[in-house]
Design a protein that fits this description.
This protein is of the alpha/beta class. It is about 25% helix and about 25% strand. The chain contains 13 helices and 23 strands. It folds into two domains: about 290 residues, no CATH class; about 180 residues, no CATH class. It is globular, with a radius of gyration of 24 Å. Helix 3 runs parallel beside helix 4 and helix 7 packs antiparallel against helix 8.
Length: about 500
């Protein structure tokens, strides 16, 4: 319809560890363009309230599996594509809104604050008059510059992120509602509060207190008359930029309630800082395996947390696998049934595919990207399964080494779902021990686990943050610093609208 606002969609998302030697290239983003974007999100398709409320035009979005820093050439290639498509759209119609579909923890070589830079370039094409609504991961980062360029902003309220689609839909709904006010809608107030806390997700899961109670306050603040949205970002712990810290933002129409809401959330977060602990019992890998062997709970899950590919780990650190295969308990077929997920090794997978299911092979895999902790691991075993066509892994295989079912993949892949195992003819519910490169367990695994421990293993997303060697984050920062000479200033700061010069002032 002629009176409908035109909303374009663009964004790049990749949670990237600055402590991993891996690099993320353009194909890893699996870019979607034009109508492919609309097809991805049912809530903006025709026949839905949001789909019928605006004309949605896709430019380009790219969502990469978390990994190492994005190569500058990859960033420039993707951004050029985004800008070209936005220019083409702007030639044919007037653009009123942008849904900025991002994660918020993307690091790019030789570039700080990548999302703010991306939006700055987008604004050069679409103009400052366009209303921008961003949806983000709560493990993202919100700098003052990003907060300035955005008009509406929201993030997940659950970790694990079971509300990801709800959050994206909320960002679009807020945008549509604002644009319904006419061709030049008023822009909401934005109260921004930086908090000197930087914690890993494994200490801030909303399944447990204090994060559960902290995030329960978000909808309470949002429900207050005069507030449009409230959000808390834990921040991303495995990168080293000045923007890496927790943030609270509240947007709305009435200054008093917006600032009061932001102050309430920020104060509660700071006052709870000493209460954040890991979401499961922790220990060294040896301690976790020993506990699992002594336990009668089956299946017993162990998180190989330091190389978690969904937090930015390279996914090919062999340190844990080599320790598992060296355990005498697992070196015979009759030993405890163990599943290890997973290790990439393209040459090993090629040999396995060539040999076929049932054959015995000797292959070497891992440590092609991150060899800082252990070299490649060589194993001999019987081929249990081969599966082709996975979006991430491309080809998946299983080799039975003693009593350990080792999943070897062509490319790295996270294992979050029961079907990830059963499609490889593995039965995790019947296993004694399941070891997964992950941090907190995703919902299906969490519900499946009879017991669980978090192994504090090495890698690009090491849970022992101080030993990683951050140099550029603001200090003091909890928990890097346990004493503060004075309490942090948690006074909300108003960030000006995106169509005004960048300044900030405390309320």
């Amino acid at each position: 319809m002629a009176n409908q606002p035109v909303i374009v969609i663009a964004g790049l998302a990749c949670e990237t560890s600055g402590f991993s030697p891996a690099r993320t290239l353009a194909p890893a983003f699996h870019p979607r363009r034009d109508t492919e974007i609309i097809e991805k999100y049912p809530f903006i398709q025709l026949g839905t309230p949001l789909g019928d409320a605006a004309e949605w035009r896709g430019a380009l979005i790219g969502h990469a599996l978390p990994g190492g820093i994005v190569a500058r050439t990859a960033f420039e290639e993707l951004v050029e594509d985004i800008l070209f498509r936005l220019m083409d759209i702007c030639k044919s119609t007037t653009v009123h809104g942008l849904w900025f579909d991002i994660h918020g923890a993307m690091c790019v070589e030789d570039l700080d604050d990548a999302e703010a830079e991306l939006l700055r370039r987008i604004r050069c094409v679409i103009g400052s008059h366009v209303i921008v609504s961003a949806s983000m991961d709560l493990h993202g980062n919100v700098s003052q510059e990003l907060a300035h360029q955005i008009d509406l902003i929201t993030c997940y309220r659950m970790a694990p992120h079971e509300d990801a689609m709800d959050t994206k839909e909320r960002a679009c709904r807020n945008l549509v509602n604002l644009l319904a006010g006419g061709s030049s809608p008023a822009r909401p107030l934005k109260a921004w509060v930086p908090i000197p806390i930087l914690l890993p997700g494994e200490q801030t899961s909303t399944r447990l207190q204090p994060a559960k109670g902290l995030y329960a306050l978000v909808p309470e603040v949002e429900s207050i008359a005069g507030v449009l949205d409230a959000a808390i970002w834990v921040g991303y712990a495995w990168a080293d930029e000045p923007r890496n810290h927790a943030v609270v933002m509240v947007t709305g129409w009435e200054a008093d309630v917006v600032t009061a809401g932001a102050r309430k959330l920020a104060t509660h977060f700071w006052d709870s800082r000493e209460d954040f602990h890991f979401v499961a019992p922790t220990g060294s890998l040896t301690e976790c395996i020993d506990t699992a062997l002594q336990s009668t709970s089956r299946p017993f899950f162990i998180s190989d947390s330091g190389d978690n590919p969904t937090a930015g780990g390279a996914g090919d650190v062999t340190w844990s696998l080599s320790k598992v295969l060296s355990r005498p308990e697992f070196q015979h077929d009759s030993g405890p049934r163990v599943i290890y997920a997973s290790i990439p090794g393209p040459e090993a997978v090629e040999s396995i595919v060539r040999a076929g299911v049932g054959a015995t092979v000797t292959v070497t895999a891992g440590a092609q990207v991150d060899d800082t902790h252990e070299g490649p691991v060589t194993m001999t075993g019987r081929i249990h399964a081969i599966k082709k066509g996975d979006r991430n892994a491309v080809t998946e295989t299983v080799v039975q080494v003693g009593s350990v079912s080792v999943i070897l993949t062509e490319l790295r892949k996270p294992y979050h779902l029961e079907k990830d195992f059963t499609e490889l003819n593995l039965e995790p519910r019947s296993a004694d021990i399941v070891i997964v490169k992950i941090g907190y367990l995703e919902p299906e695994l969490f519900n499946m686990a009879a017991d669980w421990m978090l192994a504090l293993t090495p890698g690009g997303v090491d849970q022992d943050l101080p030993r990683l060697g951050h140099q550029r984050i603001h200090r003091p920062m909890w928990p890097f610093d346990r004493t503060f000479s004075e309490a942090p200033d948690l006074t909300p700061r108003f960030i000006p609208p995106s169509n005004e010069p960048f300044t900030t002032h405390s309320v």
